[in-house]
Amino acid sequence: MSYTEQHCHSCGMPLSAPDARGASDKYCAYCTDSEGNLKSWDEAVSGLAQYLDSWQKVGNEEARKRAIRYLTSMPAWADRA
Question: Which end of the chain is less crowded, N or C, counting CB atoms within 10 A of the terminal residue's CB?
């Protein structure tokens, strides 16, 4: 039997990561509200852009572009591509 890592359908975070598991079995705790509902597109873009800029130091506009490019490659946001 092989083990397949489960990832968040919104951001790709491994659901086995510390503090990643939330109320949803498809999305991480960072991408959902307390009931496991996926946050809005704007919240997802804003949150990822802040995270990217915190370590890439590219500025808000570039971080936002990178966040949008990345998120639209994920199953939860593919319709936004």
Answer: N
